[in-house]
């Protein structure tokens, strides 16, 4: 090494020094390549001393991400952008890194949760966030393109990108919103489904208004400031927001007719339950609030997915877990389906038969009835007597009628 005096070192020391310098250059090569490539990605923190360590598997399994747990994180727009970049580096997210947590981002979070055997709610908790940070720190920032020494991994990377594009398209197709199709075109302007996305946008733009001939619709409300843009779920007819449920407590509960009767779910709550089961792909029946055989089979199938007793009846913990799991899919379902009208509840009809009798304590009615009977009896007696004396039909009448009349 020119310009440096090294004395007292053996040949092996020279080799050790060369190896150390080579490893140092190799470790910094990806960051240098990223800087020289002009990539627009913001390099997030990589393996710094202040970063959180990977949480234990037990702590990760015990947490269930909900809307409330993610709101407690107070993620700024920069934090949300960094979170999108981390999921992109792990191969779960392929949408725009703009800090907007769209349904595509929720689907990516749900896929990451499924990979770790967690409840795929699409919402994050603090332990899950630390796990994503630790996992993405080990991978590093997303690279702008394959390096020369990554030529062998190009087919696998291409396959992963195709799978991500398909997942993106399926999410946009499920919501059937023009904004989601536009987001797909921004991410994949020449993708496999680009022309279909343009056709869908054109059809949605040319669709008739929701209230033809009616009064003009009110303008949409103004967007809230970024500090107040925390996601809020739709109001639920099943009660207040559910609390997280541990896997142990969920497995210990067995849903029965009695446990479900204690929940006291009214007709609107039963309709919402049917809609949530449909959003999870378990129910295909009508949304009428009647938890018949189809709804019971859907509940039993959900219980099988979670290794629970498939009784078809719910308990309080199972209802909370089902609501947490279906929250993201239920929001998309409500956005793509018209609201359900009021439910008709028919009460059973009881027929009442009445018998009527003549009043016992009415002297006038008794006298009239007696007069009627007396008149009938007198009439019959008079007819008999009159026929024997004056009529010509009897024996006496025949004899008297044939003789001579007395002068």
List keywords for this structure.
mainly alpha; 16 helices; 407 residues
Task: Give an overview of the whole structure.
With 407 residues, this protein is an all-alpha fold. It is 53% helix and 0% strand. It is built from 16 helices and no strands. The protein has helices spanning 11-36, 57-62, 67-71, 77-89, 103-115, 126-139, 154-175, 178-187, 194-205, 247-252, 257-263, 267-279, 293-305, 316-336, 363-389, 395-402. Helix 8 runs antiparallel to helix 9. The chain is elongated, with a radius of gyration of 43 Å. It starts with 10 loop residues before the first helix and ends in a 5-residue tail after the last helix. Mean pLDDT is 73; it is low at 1-43, 45-50, 144-148, 219-232, 345-349 and 389-407.
The gyration radius over C-alpha positions equals 43 Å
Kindly report how far apart the N and C termini lie: 185 Å
For the secondary structure, the number of strands is 0
Percentage of residues in helical conformation: 40-55%
Q: Taking all residues together, what is the mean pLDDT?
A: 73
Question: Would you tell me the structural class of the helices and strands?
Answer: mainly alpha
Name the overall outline.
Answer: elongated
Q: Which stretches of 5+ consecutive residues score pLDDT under 50?
A: 1-43, 45-50, 144-148, 219-232, 345-349, 389-407
Instruction: Report the sheet with the most strands, covering strand number, pairing sense and barrel closure.
Output: none
Number of helices: 16
Give the amount of beta strand, in percent: under 5%
The succession of helices and strands, N to C, reads HHHHHHHHHHHHHHHH
